[in-house]
Specification:
The complex is a heterodimer of chains A (about 110) and B (about 110). In chain A, about 0% of the residues lie in helices and about 55% in strands. With about 110 residues, chain A is an all-beta fold. Chain A has a single domain, classed as Sandwich (Immunoglobulin-like). In chain A, the strands form three sheets. In chain A, strands 2, 5, 6, 10, 11 and 12 form a six-stranded mixed sheet that branches. In chain A, β7 and β8 form a beta hairpin. Chain B has one domain: Immunoglobulins (Immunoglobulin-like), CATH 2.60.40.10. Chain B is mainly β. The chains are: A mainly beta (about 110), B mainly beta (about 110).
């Protein structure tokens, strides 16, 4: 069965500093991988996705993620965070034939300090 | 832009009540989903539908049912609400093999 682990429940980062959120997955084949962001009181917004090809994926809002098959990881990064990046971030995995049946991680809450 | 609308932002119901959560999408998407979001657990799939009148169980269907009589509308039904169903419920829609689009959620409290 597929699963997703986000080891960090909560991260605090200073505005302007870099951010990296970790995601590890378990899946029999190469999965589809996603990062979603949820701002307070909002639904989930897709930041980026990986299906195949280039392992470094660019997303919206200046985020990028790198797929590392050998480590079963799909970590999310941003070089310089803004106060508006404070939110909860979810990593998700789906099988090739089950796009909508996403398996989500527990989420990482990001707090941005001045 | 895709819009997924959940009819209620907040709901408070009593134990044993029958509860309907409504979701409407405006982009003629084939697939629709209901997820439940709880702190520390992320999102878990309750039910999904690939077409009108079709439904499939997700990971946690117990205590829930769904209805999809029209393509644009997907309803989640709690036949007899219980306190352990207090949660945030998120609806999503999807064109086949495209990313999901989520609504803003319904926060349900069962007392």
């Amino acid at each position: 069965a597929q699963s997703v682990t986000q080891p960090d429940i909560h991260i605090t980062v200073s505005e302007g500093a870099s951010l990296e959120l970790r995601c590890n997955y378990s899946y029999g084949a190469t999965p589809y991988l996603f990062w979603y962001v949820q701002s307070p009181g909002q639904g989930l917004q897709l930041l980026l996705k990986y299906f195949s090809g280039d392992t470094l994926v660019q997303g919206i809002k200046g985020f990028e993620a790198e797929f590392k098959r050998s480590q079963s990881s799909f970590n999310l990064r941003k070089p310089s965070v803004h106060w508006s990046d404070a939110a909860e971030y979810f990593c998700a995995v789906a099988g090739v034939d089950s796009w909508g049946k996403l398996q989500f991680g527990a989420g990482t809450q990001v707090v941005v300090t001045p | 832009d895709v819009k997924v609308t959940q009819s209620s932002r907040y709901l408070v119901k009593r134990t044993g009540e029958k509860v309907f959560l409504e979701c409407v999408q405006d982009m003629d998407h084939e697939n629709m989903f209901w997820y439940r979001q709880d702190p520390g657990l992320g999102l878990r799939l309750i039910y999904f539908s690939y077409d009108v009148k079709m439904k499939e169980k997700g990971d946690i269907p117990e205590g829930y049912s769904v209805s999809r009589e029209k393509k644009e509308r997907f309803s989640l039904i709690l036949e007899s609400a219980s306190t352990n169903q207090t949660s945030m419920y998120l609806c999503a829609s999807q064109r086949y093999n495209s990313p999901l689009h989520f609504g803003n959620g319904t926060r349900l409290t069962v007392t």
